[in-house]
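Deliverable D4.2, example record:
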Amino acid sequence: MGSIPRLVGIVASTVGVLYICARRRVRPLSWFHVLTFLFVLWAAVSTLWSIDTEATRTRLLTYLQLTVLVWLIWEIAWSPQRTRALLGAYVLGVAVASVATIRDYLSGEHAAGYAGRFNALSINPNELGMTLAIGLPMAWYLSLSHPQRRVARLWQLYLPLAITAILLTASRGAFLTMLVALAIIPATQGRLRLRTKAALCVLAPASLVLAASFVPEATLERLQTTRADIESGYFGNRGFIWRAGLEVAREHPLVGLGAGTFGAAVEPTLGFQWSSHSVPLGILVEDGLVGLLVFLAIIGAAFTALRRAPRLPRRFGIVLLLALGVG
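Output generated by the structure prediction step:
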């Protein structure tokens, strides 16, 4: 399945570049883009001292691809209409993944290596759950900003669909991200009419109850351990991983051990190349304090840009960034 998304990405990027060339002008870059380029440049420099140069080259290639994607979105989505079109494309894609996850559950196809958990297209359940959760504020924003009311309401159908699919993945991280993402609803209640608010008060808990009754009991029991795991510092082995990562960061605080090397860095302690399950910690270990400060500056630039946005896009952007931070 990996080659198909890659091919689609290459085709989409090529079309985007051709569009920009045909337009014969580019938009001025913001501080967000400048800092993003600096972060990628620092990751490239870290190849010089990387403990796993192959992993660093692979991570650098991923960073470069994402940077090109960020630039293309900046160039193409220059109006609210174009932004909604891109958000709509994302929501439609994750809606298909949600349906596929529910289909796997109905057909009894468990995720490989994850008993009692379900996923679409053999995607890692944790990654799938996060991807679906990020679509929740997007769908709600589209339902409030679309000029045609009947079409706008269709976007809200994604919410019960995605909530059910996220619960079926049994990903505790995605479950927490979902709760943060759903904060978009109370954050935008001022735009809803009284009749819509009343209907929402009935439909929201009804959707949760229906989704919970649809999900297997074993899956719900796993999700119910979230609070206890957080309090104990365990959280699905993450506590051990984070402690090992912090120990490495204390030994190499300034420049890290090279982009993409978190797994190699903690392997001597944990006996396996685990992923960080924490973006800030992963960056601290791999790129050091220098990389982490640049990354935090990128986040700060994003929040600063939102201050100048209209009320609805601003609240949507804040909730989306918070959901991404939790995920």
